[in-house]
Amino acid sequence: MPQGEYRGMNLTILDIDHENVAYFGHCAEHDFHLQQCTDCGLLRYPPGTACPWCQNREFEWTAVEGKGAVHSYGEVHQAIQTQFREHAPYMILIVDLDTQKGEPSEHEALRIAGNLVTPDGELAPPELVKQVGIGSRMRMVFADVSEGLALPMWTLDEEAEQPENPWRYPQEYNGV
Predict the structure, then answer these.
(1) Which of 117, 127, 130, 132 is the most exposed place for a label (fewest CB within 10 A)?
(2) Which is nearest to 146 in space by CA: 46, 31, 6?
(3) Residues near 136 by beta carbon (within 8 Å), at least 6 away in sequence
(4) Computed from CA positions of residues 58, 61, 5, 136, in that sequence, does the dihedral angle turn out positive or negative?
(5) In angstroms, rounded to a whole number, what is the distance separating the alpha carbons of residues 97 and 118?
(6) How crowded is residue 125: how many other Cβ atoms within 10 Å of its Cβ?
(7) Which CATH number fits domain 3-156: 3.90.1150.10, 2.40.50.840, 3.10.20.30, 2.60.40.10?
(8) Which helix (H) or strand (E) holds 174?
(9) Cβ burial, residue 147 (10 Å; 0-12/13-18/19+)
(10) Is the pTM of this model over 0.85?
(11) CA pair distance 115, 2, nearest whole angstrom
(12) How many CB atoms are located within 10 Å of the residue 23 CB?
């Protein structure tokens, strides 16, 4: 049963949760894999017991490149969790993966949530938080929690062309 502590939060994945044990096991190897339906061929996230599009229960774990663009974000200024308070403001991102974007419909994508971090996996400082907005190009990194358990996180993709002005909430420009 993978378990560990991340910034004061106890994390446990029960052995009976086979899909998440396997998913986080791949993450622990710093290798991003998603379930791919053996019937319709679509990838899915979060891991589950059946394809959300065709209900087939058969799948294969498929390696997926952890790169994409910010779809949405939340900037936390009042951290509830004690261990996060010294890092406020920090950012939680939802990133559209480049893989399978626009399938099975033009409005869908594989969207993966994670904290904004530096390339070495530390929560991003305020100057980095201010650089990121909707459309920013990201790449996945992993925060090791324990043996068999790591969390996917996001950092700016240094090799990708970044938007000149990624969209941010207007009040953030005015220092509110």
Answers:
(1) 127
(2) 6
(3) 69, 70, 156, 162, 163, 166
(4) negative
(5) 19
(6) 13
(7) 2.40.50.840
(8) none
(9) exposed
(10) yes
(11) 21
(12) 21
Q: Which residues pair with 120 in a beta bridge?
A: none
**Is a pLDDT exceeding 70 seen at residue 174?**
no
Domain ranges (residues) in the chain: 3-156
Could you tell me the CA-to-CA distances from 93 to 60, 83, 130, 162, 164 in Å, in that order?
A: 27, 19, 13, 16, 19
Count the neighbouring beta carbons within 10 Å of the beta carbon of residue 90. 22
Quote the CA–CA distance of 45 and 99 in Å, as a whole number. 12
Contacts of 157 (CB under 8 A, 6+ apart): 67, 137, 138, 139
Residue 80 has pLDDT above 80, yes or no: yes
Please tell me whether the peptide bond between 166 and the residue prior to it is cis, using omega within 30 degrees of 0.
no
Tokens read off for 12: 């446990």
β partners of residue 3: 12
One-letter amino acid identity for 90?
Answer: Y
Q: Which two tokens stand for residue 153?
A: 């996180």
Residue count of the chain, please give it: 176
Residue type, 3: Q
Band of residue 16 on the pLDDT scale cut at 50, 70, 90: confident
